[in-house]
Design brief:
Length: 242
């Protein structure tokens, strides 16, 4: 379960508002997953459970989907998903109420399963204040206060019908560069490098998802070989970089 952090891509929102004391959100937001993969032409819907871990307070959540354009490149941008006559992707509902100690479902819909290009989305799950129209316990006293809202962001990846990552790995000195000339992403996990002089001293290396058409580099602390797990849709294999 994922609690009080923004899943795959973390952020914290601090909002200065004028609120009544009874309006301060104390409910705890959890999600059952933060990465969703649509992996085939029949993969058109995935559900994310939104859980209220507070036994006393209702949880009010806003759901905001964005398409990631040029993911993993210097030109990467987020574009709000528009609801038009022919949407490629939807997250529904856009707002929900989760009763204390219970859960609700947000459905992610891939409406263009035959797309030949990998598509990437990020969906924000943001706790919000109780809407005024359902506030039946009004407190006349107001006071300015700083409210910290901790949200999640779910990563949704729509794979093409025949996903084929093509990793290209090069090393120059102590810098390893990874690129991807395929049509689907691959994930670098469990990176590690040991000091060739004293092999008992090892350092964990950062992981990264390398999207189609993008590249990423990591600087090594030592001169010796490094290793990663390279995960694709067909499984994970060991990658040794000399």
């Amino acid at each position: 379960m994922y609690k009080n952090r923004l899943g795959f891509s973390c952020y914290m929102m601090i909002i200065l508002t004028t609120l009544t004391a009874s309006e301060v959100a104390r409910a705890d937001l959890l999600l059952d997953k933060v990465v969703v993969i649509f992996d085939g032409s029949k993969s058109t819907k995935k559900d994310v459970s939104v859980i209220n871990d507070n036994s006393d307070e209702r949880l009010f959540v806003s759901v905001e989907p964005f398409e990631v354009e040029a993911p993993g490149t210097k030109d990467q941008t987020l574009k709000a998903v528009a609801i038009d006559d022919n949407p490629a992707f939807l997250a529904t509902p856009s707002k929900l109420i989760v009763e204390p100690g219970s859960s609700s479902v947000v459905r992610l819909l891939n409406l263009q399963p035959e797309s030949t290009q990998e598509r990437v989305y990020r969906i924000n799950f943001l706790p919000i204040q109780k809407p005024p129209e359902i506030d039946d316990d009004v407190d006349e006293g107001v006071a300015p206060m700083v409210e910290i809202l901790v949200a999640y962001q779910v990563l949704a990846i729509v794979l093409p019908p025949n996903p084929e990552p093509k990793p290209i790995v090069t090393r120059t000195g102590n810098v390893i560069s990874f690129s991807n000339q395929g049509n689907a992403n691959y994930l670098l996990t469990d990176g590690k490098q040991c000091n060739p002089i004293g092999s008992s001293k090892c350092v964990d290396l950062p992981g990264h998802r390398v999207y189609a058409g993008s590249s990423w580099s990591v600087e090594l602390p030592f001169d010796g070989p490094a290793q990663y797990g390279l995960r694709t849709q067909s499984g994970t294999r060991a990658l040794i970089v000399e």
